[in-house]
Amino acid sequence: MSDNIMIMKGNIIFTPTMGQFKVLENSYIVVKKKQVIGTYGELPSEYNGLPITDYGDHLIVPGFVDLHSHAPQFVNRGLGLDLELLPWLKKYTFFAEARFEDVSYAEEVYKQVVLELWQQGTTRVVLFGTIHTEATMKLMELLAQAGLGGCVGKVNMDRNSPEFLIETTEQSIDDTETFIKNTLDKYERVKPIITPRFVPSCTPELMMGLARLAKKYQVPIQSHLSENLDEIALVKKLHPECCNYASVYQKFELFGQQPTIMAHCVHSDELEQKLMEENSIYVAHCPYSNNNLSSGIAPIRSMINQGIAVGLGSDVSAGHEVSIAKVMAMAVQVSKLKWLDTKKEDRFLTIPEAFYLATKGGGSFFGKVGSFEEGYEFDALIIAERSLADSNQRSVEERLNRFIYIGDERDIVARYVAGEKIDRPEF
Amino acid sequence: MSDNIMIMKGNIIFTPTMGQFKVLENSYIVVKKKQVIGTYGELPSEYNGLPITDYGDHLIVPGFVDLHSHAPQFVNRGLGLDLELLPWLKKYTFFAEARFEDVSYAEEVYKQVVLELWQQGTTRVVLFGTIHTEATMKLMELLAQAGLGGCVGKVNMDRNSPEFLIETTEQSIDDTETFIKNTLDKYERVKPIITPRFVPSCTPELMMGLARLAKKYQVPIQSHLSENLDEIALVKKLHPECCNYASVYQKFELFGQQPTIMAHCVHSDELEQKLMEENSIYVAHCPYSNNNLSSGIAPIRSMINQGIAVGLGSDVSAGHEVSIAKVMAMAVQVSKLKWLDTKKEDRFLTIPEAFYLATKGGGSFFGKVGSFEEGYEFDALIIAERSLADSNQRSVEERLNRFIYIGDERDIVARYVAGEKIDRPEF
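Predict the joint structure of the above. Result:
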């Protein structure tokens, strides 16, 4: 019966429910193949005699889920952050992405991206590539090689885009179909996702074509929604027939017909939020990005209250932080400013709430991911505390708080994805 | 003539004026004793033949100035951040500070504090200690031993404080005088500063006594101002005779009679700002802290427009980040939210503006500190770019931006304070 059983010991902490840490000190977690069997204060007798990986005083937490980031923009982190969305795209981002026509450049950058995700403890990630099919497939290959899980999209852009980064409608659809066919069953944990950049850069014909592909191949969808007021005005101008931004995606069947992530939703009002809830849309909350591009503070409490699924996103390179731990801290921080803005009506996010968003919240997009409950895929980080510790006694929860706020990748001593220990990628 | 001359070569970048980087690529900086003689694209012939420290492609920037932090709270970083100011003080901070009655505990923690400041590139710092004279003198000794510069205050508290962290008025004044006498001329770059915690914890008698000491010994002053609405309401209740919070300090001559730093000033209105400007008050802007304790966003643009001197502060442990580079990034980020809040009236801080605040802005509190202009004390950081660099060509300014946003202490390869190279403290 020892076959495929893995037992780990340490200070286990996770969030089976939003806002509440479950803590098991000096306890056991039993994993069979890729799934959690259970967590136990005392090891059940049936497992006696099996080898135990003892992590001592270290913390064992679920791996972090990043629901929204742009792989080709990693090289631009920390650059060009004095602009808003549309000029920032034109001045920095489109140029950076155009270089990914060159697959060997793409490979060089994407190795850094995957290494950085691995370092920061991101075990599942949803990424935008570029319009370039080959480079985007390379990214998937590298992610799979590293053992990480995720969805990756070849980006679609056939209007309002610079001539060096635009496709014809037909080419865009054809390439996307090729991309899907080539990658749909290629890797166990890395899958394709339909990725219209955003409404301004996709014609109705393209959006309809992508919706057909999503349905035909049962592939999820990701895009951007209501990030910036100028962007929203542009969408309104392009689609005066739609009552709001979300309705455009809805009209073209890219809004929940397959599982769908929408990044940002900073300016989504009650009506738009209702549409999101009705269509089971996932929101990728990207507070670093929303600060850097002066987009604003997304109404996350309101969305949670509406029953909308929320996860966290780094949104590199509009967001400069890859670490989802740091994104949690920022989500809490901006929620406090939102709390003040709403005259203390929209309660701020607590740390266990943000932790939930970063693990089980976003993880549910991948199925049973982001928790240590029975049947969940075992994604985990083992966290030591390098130089953080002090001579005061701290609880497991306090130690996790401290890691979130002031820890970094040097504190993560091991990573697991779907039951598999993932070592530093050897690129 | 080579006596006491030091020549360094590298990519020099600093902000002689607010908001404008001065960049000298592959250039020279000549330092005599502790002061900068000049920066040069070509080395003047008079220095020919003297040894040059060549930092190659590295950046040479002014050292960072932290105008406000609490040394005893370093062990609490990342803890207890789900509360506002007054309950946070009661539940976490006062207990942490009470331990500093024990000088050996203080020494252990303060060694970590000084090491962390050194690591993060903070070359000048203004610190709160605790009410304990001996522990606070130990902190000064350790700072001086490490070669850092700064002002350190023994904290005063004689009302509205827990019984385990309160003094009598007389004792508080006597201890402060002892503290000043013992430290005023003891170290070249580490000096005492008068430190009433804030109005709620200091009686009028104590404030008057401290003002007398400030005048008698010509010692600067630091405290907190208008951080939180409940705090402001409490001050109003304690001092109904004063029209605002600042007026209380003004009334008791702790508001610019000697050089004065006031931390936060989140809720300072036009009238209070006017009083600050008239009294040449320095504002320590602490955006991490103001987010974490839900204090709000300080009106920094408005203060700058009024001609008020502003520097940056980490405000550990209400702020969890020691790195002033990260504080710069956060100052920029929250200023963008303020920009939106003010309907784009209060322009957001640009990166060269935040850099100015973190160097020459705060540095001016110490005299000629924070720039590489002639006559400035040579405080500098040498910044390499560990793993940050990519294969794209980046300008010196872009590389500095990248360090600010995504670099960390591992990128700082050397530190200088007042012309002296400061190695890792050997505690």
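The two ends of chain B are 36 Å apart (CA to CA).
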